């Protein structure tokens, strides 16, 4: 005997920000009514996107996505889908409800002020992206209260100011200030294109619009002060033929009205013919509804009956709930149809009802209230959303009714053994081929998308292709079915790849480029999501050589490279991807000592060099910024154990690896300078500074000096000494002397400065006055050095302890010592030799 039970499909762990979603639902339900939360939840037709509409006082949209490939979700940047702020969201529209897995999902966010934002979700590209923003309403004062899609029409109910509607009495002005409007739409690659606005019904009450097939139902919103007569009827309308029907929840169809095409109709005129009949009946209120399709709609009435309003106007009663059920539990309910079963939740009880005969199949108690939804990929089984996760209803053998036989036990054991045996075989197969010492497990193969067991794969694919269009009504618990469920994502990817290959063969010249980009991006994602051995590295090199343009586009998409407004480069790639890129294991590039230094001896460039080469070819200005990103990743705390930055015999610094891809250093000196400076290493910075000095870019020289002198005292001293040598030899730095003197290190002395200057003075035969200011010659003068020497001498004087007592003397200075002529001793230093020569030539030297 079988019974229906709830089985958890996911606890939101495979959704983006799943823990945040779970915490939000629990926190919300603890403070508010569950129904108020469930009423604001929307689930996409494929069950992969959960949207929570946030009402006042805080308006917005929470979005949570389930990716079919887990590694793609890690690369995506979370983005709030709502750009229109401080405006309430009315509802969401899915424009391509039956899209394929490779097709992008189009979502429309409809706002109360008539604006609509069209968003697209593409898993293999960059997740959600805004396509366009459109205006639905003509009037800026209109207020949308409900909206739906019916075939190629957008239908909505909007509230208009009384002055814009037809004349109505002052009593009914507030209750009948709504209109029903429609617009055609077409979906294309840029989003949607809208037709003109047409008002179909004037002066109607507040209606909730919902579509089923080609029919739109207008259901009244029950309000405290609403007109009781209006609540007795609801309408159905065909937007294509403009046929209206007036229905009652107790008597079915009351009136049918055909109108001319594009002719506006007034609600009061429509119901005038049946107003007398309405005064004699008291129909039940509508507590819940659900579209069935083909023009039928399922209704939950306040009387406890579950009824179906068919497109021909007949009202069929299906099931009667227990007495006082809705009164006890309030109006917290959810209902839907799955194949031949009506599923209804009232409070914390789920009812399963046969739609043909109305027989109750089973009641399932619920731990918490939930929302039923239809997953277009699995329409055969009921799906339910709760604050604990997503659940599905399955059939299960009632073990309490009958004891399992030995044969059943053997079958169960064999099924479990079959599943585990296949994965264990795959573990052994990959362990033999792997160079890593990490032990593979079956769980890693299931979660990592690595399963490719060769012995069983062919048979699995054959059965999968043969049964892909057959949806079993009951979940099979056999080992083969479990194996198929585990490999469903991989098999779909394989089939999609084969479809693309077949499309490439038949593709035109125009479509071939698009297919090629898709294939290259898929291959790059696949290779970078696993360990790269020598064989895969060789394959990756060939892909970059054969498809340079496509691989460059794939690199930008996979790493999500974005050039910000301030000129910096950003990437949202996860740390695991950078680990593959920067790993020195697959590098070991024993670079040849020939002219082509960027070519390794084994003929295959490492991944980092491949990326740098592609960036240099298509966007050279990004190369220094990419180097900075790579260095940030290699030095971050999460990757500190990678040891990428150490210069060992097995790996080179990243800036040297980036420099190796530049073919001609002479033609790319500016780029080489930028790479050297980005490295932040003292030797590289000095090398870049000397290159700038050689090019005579003195503005850039001073900028680099000011920037890097602050990094360390040693680098400051080396930069200052290098520039002081240049000052000693020529006059090109004279306009920058004030800036240069400000960079003088604290430990620099007058003697040290004079030593550097005298050692590097150019040889000259001209006799110049050393005390003059600027001269037209190229020789350094004392006048140029005077500010620097004065600054250093004052600093030495302040720091000298010998002058402490003198500076603290109260009134009288100490007596001046008697001057004595002292014979100069024989000197061996170059400074003393120069001073002796100057004295011999008549140059006065003070002893003070």
From TrEMBL:
InterPro entries: BLOC-2_complex_Hps6_subunit (IPR017218), HPS6_C (IPR046822), HPS6_N (IPR046823)
Protein name: Hermansky-Pudlak syndrome 6 protein
Pfam family, one: HPS6
GO BP terms, alphabetized: lysosome localization; protein localization to membrane
GO cellular component terms attached to this protein's record: BLOC-2 complex; lysosomal membrane
BLOC-2 complex member HPS6 C-terminal domain location: 420-819
All copies of domain BLOC-2 complex member HPS6 N-terminal, residue ranges: 3-393
């Amino acid at each position: 005997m079988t019974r229906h039970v709830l089985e958890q499909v996911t606890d939101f762990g495979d959704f983006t920000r799943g823990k945040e979603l779970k915490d939000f639902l629990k926190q919300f339900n603890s403070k508010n009514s569950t129904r108020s939360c469930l009423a604001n939840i929307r689930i996409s037709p494929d069950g992969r996107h959960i949207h929570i509409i946030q009402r006042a006082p805080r308006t917005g949209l929470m979005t949570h996505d389930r990716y079919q490939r887990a590694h793609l979700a890690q690369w995506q940047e979370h983005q709030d889908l709502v750009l229109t702020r401080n405006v309430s969201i009315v509802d969401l529209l899915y424009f391509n409800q039956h899209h394929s897995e490779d097709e992008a999902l189009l979502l429309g966010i409809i706002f109360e002020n008539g604006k609509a934002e069209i968003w697209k979700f593409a898993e293999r590209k960059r997740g959600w992206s805004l396509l366009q923003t459109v205006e639905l309403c003509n009037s800026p004062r209109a207020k949308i209260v409900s909206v739906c899609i019916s075939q190629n029409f957008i239908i909505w109910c909007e509230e208009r100011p009384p002055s814009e509607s037809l004349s109505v009495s002052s009593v009914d002005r507030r209750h009948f200030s709504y209109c029903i409007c429609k617009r055609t739409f077409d979906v294309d690659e840029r989003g949607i294109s809208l037709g003109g606005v047409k008002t179909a019904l004037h002066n109607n009450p507040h209606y909730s619009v919902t579509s089923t097939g080609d029919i739109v139902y207008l259901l009244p919103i029950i309000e405290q002060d609403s007109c009781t007569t209006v609540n007795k009827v609801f309408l159905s309308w065909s937007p294509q033929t403009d046929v209206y029907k007036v229905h009652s929840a107790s008597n079915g169809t009351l009136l049918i009205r055909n109108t001319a095409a594009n002719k506006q109709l007034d609600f009061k005129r429509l119901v005038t013919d049946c107003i007398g009949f309405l005064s004699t009946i008291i129909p039940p209120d509508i507590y819940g509804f659900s579209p069935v399709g083909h023009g039928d709609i399922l209704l939950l009435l306040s009387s406890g009956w579950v009824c179906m309003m068919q497109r021909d106007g007949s009202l069929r009663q299906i099931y009667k709930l227990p007495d006082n059920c809705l009164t006890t539990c309030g109006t917290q309910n959810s209902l839907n149809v799955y194949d031949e079963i009506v599923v209804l939740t009232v409070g914390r009880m789920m009812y399963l009802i046969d739609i043909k005969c109305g027989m109750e199949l089973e009641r399932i108690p619920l731990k918490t209230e939930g929302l039923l939804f239809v997953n277009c990929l699995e329409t055969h089984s009921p799906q339910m959303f709760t604050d604990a996760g997503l659940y599905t209803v399955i059939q299960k053998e009632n073990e309490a009714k009958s004891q399992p036989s030995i044969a059943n036990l053997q079958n169960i054991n064999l099924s479990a053994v079959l599943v585990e045996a296949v994965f264990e075989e795959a573990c052994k197969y990959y362990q033999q081929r792997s160079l890593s010492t990490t032990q593979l497990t079956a769980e890693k193969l299931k979660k990592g998308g690595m399963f490719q067991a060769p012995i069983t794969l062919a048979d699995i694919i054959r059965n999968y292709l043969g049964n892909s269009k057959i949806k079993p009504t009951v979940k099979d618990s056999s080992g083969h079915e479990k194996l198929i469920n585990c490999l469903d994502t991989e098999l779909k990817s394989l089939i999609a790849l084969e479809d693309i290959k077949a499309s490439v063969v038949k593709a035109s010249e125009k479509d071939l480029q698009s297919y090629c980009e898709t294939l290259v991006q898929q291959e790059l994602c696949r290779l970078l999501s696993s360990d790269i051995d020598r064989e895969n590295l060789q394959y990756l090199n060939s892909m970059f050589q054969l498809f340079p343009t496509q691989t460059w586009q794939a690199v930008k998409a996979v790493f999500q490279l974005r050039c910000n407004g301030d000129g910096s480069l950003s990437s949202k790639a996860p740390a695991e991807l950078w680990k593959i890129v920067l790993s020195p294991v697959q590098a070991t590039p024993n670079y040849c000592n020939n002219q082509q230094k960027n070519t390794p001896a084994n003929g295959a460039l490492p991944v980092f060099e491949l990326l740098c080469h592609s960036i240099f070819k298509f966007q050279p200005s990004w190369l220094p910024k990419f180097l900075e990103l790579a260095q940030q990743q290699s030095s971050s705390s999460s990757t500190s154990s990678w040891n990428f930055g150490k210069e060992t015999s097995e790996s080179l610094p990243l800036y040297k690896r980036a420099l190796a891809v530049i073919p001609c250093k002479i033609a790319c000196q500016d780029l080489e300078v930028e790479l050297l400076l980005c490295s932040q290493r003292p030797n590289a910075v000095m090398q870049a500074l000397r290159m700038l000095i050689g090019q005579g870019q003195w503005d850039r020289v001073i900028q680099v000096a000011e920037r890097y002198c602050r990094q360390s005292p040693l680098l400051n001293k080396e930069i200052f000494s290098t520039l002081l040598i240049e000052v000693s030899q020529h006059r090109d730095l004279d306009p920058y002397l004030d800036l240069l003197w400000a960079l003088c290190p604290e430990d620099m002395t007058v003697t040290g400065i004079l030593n550097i200057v005298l050692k590097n003075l150019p040889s000259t035969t001209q006799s110049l006055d050393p005390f003059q200011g600027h001269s037209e010659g190229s020789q350094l003068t004392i006048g140029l050095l005077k500010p620097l020497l004065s600054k250093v001498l004052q600093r030495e004087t302040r720091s000298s302890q010998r002058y402490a007592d003198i500076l603290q003397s109260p009134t009288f200075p100490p007596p001046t010592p008697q001057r004595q002529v002292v014979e100069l001793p024989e000197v061996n230093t170059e400074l003393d030799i120069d001073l002796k020569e100057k004295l011999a030539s008549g140059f006065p030297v003070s002893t003070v």
